[in-house]
């Protein structure tokens, strides 16, 4: 918890100090009220007292009450401001941290969990800071100060107050012991219910198609019932506090007056006035003590859950980043050159290597393609270039420099990456194609139009309402798979990079569109290097170099015609897609 508060700025600590001073001053004013009440009680019972003296004491009481109210208003405003700024900073830090995650780190946290940690967990901390900053200071200060003021005045009345305090403390400890372990489960179940809801919304078409509504409802209800059950247990446990507090408060009042009455009966005339005055003071201060513990109880309702939330947030912020940016930003002797030197790779939690001893070099302007059966490591191999992962052994060089030495922004500015799954963002067609910063002049509308034309997307884009300003829904749900793929390719083209990486980026295109697109790409990218992962032989047969992967090993490298003669794996893949005659005429 304290570790998380390091996100506060220096001026925030000054605000906290000012709040603490105001809270203590407010407590001082509140505790002055019983003293003035005692003075008024004595004055009323003293024969030679005047109305002016009583009114003066009453005026002091009113002044203290007004000042205390003013302090409370200012403290409330400052704590709300502080907590809102703090939560904004923490959310920003979580977002920036997640943005720096590599694929390995992303896999450790589910999407639903990261959303919960950024929203619900941060809200729990915000609530604690908004409410707790003043109550955590006010409650103990008021309780101790009030007890110090009454201790020693009357042993009998002090005993009554002490019994009430002990009952409240024991009740609080029991309640905290019951609810604390359950808060961790609440946050985990919140993650789970977010995950189930997200799956249902994302897969709504499949759910409808398979008439799986009842099955989905059952899954949701199971998680929802678990979460509801724990919430009910926690709520019922905290519900015990209110009657206990009322019982103690009334018991204390009754006890003070019973003991006070007994003392008055057995005392002299002059002592009766002092005892009655003490009764009034003890009753008032007793209420202050009860209120203090009531405030602590409110904190105990929020603190355990906020502690769990703080630990969950720290798990994200403390996560070690596997992909660390290098320092190299300078110019290189070569451009558009990619080289793998004895590269092997295995996932961090895997025992066996997925890629084994891969070596090749592709020069500027060349096209290199990768093909192989599903799971042979094609996508993983090309993802080592933009450092989605880092090679376990060996070196991956871009323009003669190890990719691990590059500043990540510098490395990404050299690459146009088209992922296996076409990703669209909420915005317009133009904004999606001109997305990001490539370190040069941001693509203008003319550049966007040119990129879309090369990607064979002009026809469908210009038919859309508002054309290049047409809105794209979240995830690109208002365009087809092939259209998303072409816009994704256009996005890379608009960057004008020196290296293009196509990770099975033509799979959603029909053969005619695929052929036209590759023809236009060849004209546009004559000075750029292309790395293509594909399943279709027709997509890669004209590549300058084809690498055949099988179970993570390079089993063939060469041109299409060379591999048909020398690589059985390649020939088997080719014959599964094209006839012998088509292959010979290709």
Produce the secondary structure layout.
Elements: H1 10-45, H2 51-99, H3 103-106, H4 111-150, H5 155-202, H6 204-209, H7 213-239, H8 241-265, H9 269-317, E1 338-345, E2 355-362, E3 367-372, H10 378-383, E4 393-398, E5 401-402, H11 408-413, E6 415-418, E7 427-428, H12 429-433, H13 445-454, H14 458-463, E8 471-472, H15 481-495, E9 499-503, H16 511-524, E10 529-533, H17 537-540, E11 545-550, E12 553-558, H18 560-566, H19 568-575, H20 580-585
Parallel strand pairs: 3-10, 3-11, 6-9, 9-10
Antiparallel strand pairs: 1-2, 1-4, 4-5, 7-8, 11-12
Helix pairs in contact: 1-2, 1-4, 1-9, 2-4, 4-5, 4-9, 5-7, 5-8, 5-9, 8-9, 13-15, 18-19
Q: How many β strands by DSSP? A: 12
Strand order of the largest sheet: 6-9-10-3-11-12
Strand proportion, as a percent range, falls in 5-15%
Question: Helix count?
Answer: 20
């Amino acid at each position: 918890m304290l570790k998380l508060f390091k996100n506060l700025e220096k001026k925030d600590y000054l605000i906290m100090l000012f709040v603490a001073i105001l809270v203590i001053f407010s407590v001082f004013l509140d505790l002055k009220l019983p003293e003035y009440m005692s003075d008024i009680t004595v004055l009323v019972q003293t024969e030679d007292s005047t109305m002016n003296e009583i009114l003066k004491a009453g005026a002091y009481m009113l002044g203290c009450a007004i000042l205390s109210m003013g302090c409370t208003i200012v403290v409330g405003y400052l704590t709300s401001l502080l907590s809102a700024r703090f939560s904004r900073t923490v959310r920003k830090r979580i977002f920036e941290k997640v943005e720096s995650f590599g694929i390995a780190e992303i896999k450790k946290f589910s999407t639903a969990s990261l959303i919960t940690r950024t929203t619900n967990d941060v809200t729990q901390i915000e609530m604690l800071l908004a409410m707790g900053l003043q109550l955590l200071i006010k409650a103990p200060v008021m309780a101790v100060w009030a007890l110090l003021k009454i201790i020693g005045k009357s042993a009998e009345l002090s005993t009554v107050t002490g019994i009430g305090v002990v009952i409240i403390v024991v009740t609080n400890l029991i309640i905290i012991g019951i609810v604390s372990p359950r808060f961790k489960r609440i946050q985990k179940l919140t993650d789970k219910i977010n995950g189930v809801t997200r799956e249902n919304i994302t897969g709504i078409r499949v759910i409808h198609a398979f008439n799986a509504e009842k099955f989905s409802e059952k899954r949701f209800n199971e998680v929802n019932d678990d979460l509801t059950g724990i919430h009910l247990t926690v709520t019922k446990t905290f519900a015990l506090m209110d009657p206990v507090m009322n019982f103690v408060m009334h018991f204390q009042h009754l006890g003070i007056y019973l003991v006070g009455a007994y003392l008055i009966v057995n005392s002299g005339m002059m002592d009766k006035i002092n005892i009655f005055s003490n009764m009034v003071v003890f009753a008032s201060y007793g209420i202050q003590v009860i209120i203090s513990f009531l405030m602590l109880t409110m904190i105990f309702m929020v603190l355990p859950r906020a502690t769990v939330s703080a630990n969950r947030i720290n798990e994200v912020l403390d996560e070690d980043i596997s992909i660390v940016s290098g320092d190299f930003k300078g110019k290189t002797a070569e451009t558009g050159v990619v080289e793998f030197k004895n590269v092997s790779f295995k996932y961090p939690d895997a025992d066996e290597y997925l890629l084994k001893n891969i070596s090749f070099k592709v020069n500027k302007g060349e096209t290199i393609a990768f093909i192989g059966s599903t799971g042979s490591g094609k996508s993983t191999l090309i993802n080592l270039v933009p450092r989605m992962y880092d090679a376990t052994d060996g070196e991956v060089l871009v323009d003669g420099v190890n990719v691990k030495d590059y500043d990540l922004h510098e490395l990404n500015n050299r690459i146009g990456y088209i992922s296996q799954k076409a990703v669209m963002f909420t915005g317009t067609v133009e904004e999606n194609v001109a997305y990001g910063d490539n370190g040069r002049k941001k693509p203008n509308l003319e550049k966007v139009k040119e990129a879309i034309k090369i990607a064979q997307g002009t026809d469908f884009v210009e038919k859309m309402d508002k054309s290049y300003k047409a809105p794209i829904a979240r995830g690109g749900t208002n365009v087809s798979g092939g259209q998303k793929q072409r816009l994704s390719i256009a996005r890379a083209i608009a960057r004008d990079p020196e290296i293009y990486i196509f990770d099975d980026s033509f799979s959603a295109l029909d053969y005619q569109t695929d052929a036209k697109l590759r023809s236009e790409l060849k004209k546009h990218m004559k000075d750029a290097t292309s790395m293509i992962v594909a399943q279709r032989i027709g997509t890669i047969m004209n590549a300058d170099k084809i690498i055949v992967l099988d179970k993570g090993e390079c089993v063939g490298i060469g041109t299409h015609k060379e591999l048909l003669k020398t690589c059985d794996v390649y020939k088997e893949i080719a014959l599964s897609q094209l006839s012998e005659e088509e292959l010979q005429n290709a």
